[in-house]
Amino acid sequence: MVKHQPLQVYERQLCLSCITGIYGCRWKRYQRSHDDTTKWELLWSFILLFTFCGLLFWSYFWWEAHNDYSEFNWFLYNRSGQWSDGTVPILATTAAGFTYVAFLMILALCHVALGQQLNLHWLHKVGVTAALLTTLAWVISVNQTWGQEWDVIFISLQATGPFLHVGALAAVTALSWIVAGQVARAEKTLFQVVVLLLYLAGLLGLYTVPLYITSPCIMDPSALKPRPDVIGHQGAPMLAPENTLWSFQRALQMNVTGLEADVAISVDGVPFLMHDHTLRRTTNVRKVFPDRQMQDASLFNWTDLQQLNAGQWFLQNDPFWTASSLSPNEKNLIANQSVCSLEQLLKLASYHNSSVVFRLRRPPVEHPSHFTWLNDTLQAVQQSGLHPSLVMWTPDEHRAQVRELVPGLVQTSLEKQSPESLNESGISRLLLRYNQVSTPEIRDFYHQKIILVLYTVNEPWLYSVLWCGGVSAVSSEAPHVLKKVPYPIWLMKPDEYLLMWVSADIVSVVVVIGIFIFQKYRMSGIRSYNPEQIMLSAAVRRSSRDLNIMKEKLIFSGQPQ
């Protein structure tokens, strides 16, 4: 005799099966559970959340650090001696890790929303651990090699803060659906109170965040200062090899008001343009003078320097990923560039009536011009025909003597000093990295008639923030990009921002209250029925649909007689 247990009718739950299957490899119905999540799995949920937040922060950092990718690669070159784009592996692993962890976070939230027990599969635990450790390793590495770049986060928040606040408010408001469901579903009052208080505390914190958001772009448009001048940092190094004549010509085509270069002095007293201490990165010295490739650039004479090619490396290494966009004629010009002398640069600037700022590197002690380096440079300035008022003189050594020899030079400092100290020293301009001054300091320099030039500014958002702050000029590797920024990316009156802030908070409050009321009503209706009765009655009412009939148990007892 065969005895059968009563049959139960189930609807297909493909979505739920996929969610629990991908997250915890629980594809079958009997593998799923509505029980409370174990403490061990709760710990892994917090690790997953921590990893997600860490990768979100890390991704944001690299998104905003795009302004300084070339600087990062140069730091790596100084450490390794080999040129490569070190941002590629970091960006690739960050994108892959963030996508993976964000997907797991979405699945975890779906588990919570559906009342399913969290049970992360061990393979995912390995993956999350790998993502966390990799991110920590990258953070430590960058902190050691490029610690000054962390400032970009706080500076970028001046441009993105108001909009990140709205986005975060929208995300937390949407999260109220899950929180309200958990509170309505929970049977323990203490759990309900704790969850509710934590959520409301976070929400209240977001409502008040704008009190601490400051941005120079929240201002009256009538108070906006004139557009900052753009100086070509090493010319236009994204379009041509840095510190070459063609690079400066390309910068002038982008309507820059000045040119910035790095100057060294050859062993026979000729000032020439070179950023690095050696010639390995930007010339073919390995091919022409293989035995001297590690030698200081200033220990070469001008005749030897003229034999080197200073353009082919740009086409081979493609440091800014722009070589493919160049025309054949441009590539031909680049391939034939040679080392540029300071006199050539000054004559080009004189022809275009453009200002010039250069960083002068003193030769080593064994160099013949170690004591005469300033005189050699001043001689090149005087012979070029460029008016001294267009030359920004940066060396601090012997400023008084320099003023006597060439009184018209624009005295410029590379070290941050107070406006009073600069005025006492007769210095009218200050050249600093963009993270070395705050908005109040920028305005103080402006009022004290100190012209502030900040480097290196390549991104429109950074240019806009500095413009709103009142910066007089910026030095950029991307003058072709800043040329397309005729006005700050965004500019908002304080009243407009206040309206946006208050409106977003009001909408959030209304939505959150509505969701909590709806979830309470929804959950109270579900509790009045037995879950299996709901499933069976639904099957009876919708018998015309394709239902999957599963025998939950089939027991054979006894044998046929």
How would you sum up this structure, described in words?
The chain is an alpha/beta fold. Helices cover 52% and strands 10% of the residues. The chain contains 21 helices and 13 strands. The protein has helices at residues 14-24, 39-64, 69-80, 87-114, 122-146, 151-185, 189-208, 245-253, 285-288, 302-306, 312-317, 328-335, 342-352, 373-384, 399-405, 419-424, 439-447, 460-469, 479-482, 494-527, 531-541, and strands spanning 2-4, 8-10, 229-233, 258-265, 271-273, 355-360, 391-393, 410-413, 429-433, 451-455, 473-476, 548-550, 554-556. An eight-stranded parallel barrel has the order 3-4-6-7-8-9-10-11, surrounded by four helices. Strands 1-13 form a two-stranded antiparallel ribbon. Strands 2-12 form a two-stranded antiparallel ribbon. Strand 10, helix 18 and strand 11 (473-476) form a beta-alpha-beta unit. The radius of gyration is 33 Å and the shape is elongated. The relative contact order is 0.12. The model is unreliable at 528-561 (pLDDT under 50).
Give a short summary of the structure.
With 561 residues, the chain is of the alpha/beta class. 52% of the residues lie in helices and 10% in strands.
Keyword list:
561 residues; alpha/beta; elongated; disordered C terminus
Radius of gyration: 33 Å
Identify the overall geometry. elongated
User: What is the count of helical runs?
Assistant: 21
Strand order of the largest sheet: 3-4-6-7-8-9-10-11
- In percent, how helical is the residue content? 40-55%
Estimate the strand proportion. Answer: 5-15%
Which spans have pLDDT < 50 for at least 5 consecutive residues? Answer: 528-561
State the end-to-end CA separation. 8 Å
Mean pLDDT: 89
Instruction: State the major sheet.
Output: 8 strands, parallel, barrel
Query: Which structural class fits the helix and strand makeup?
Result: alpha/beta
The tally of strands reads: 13
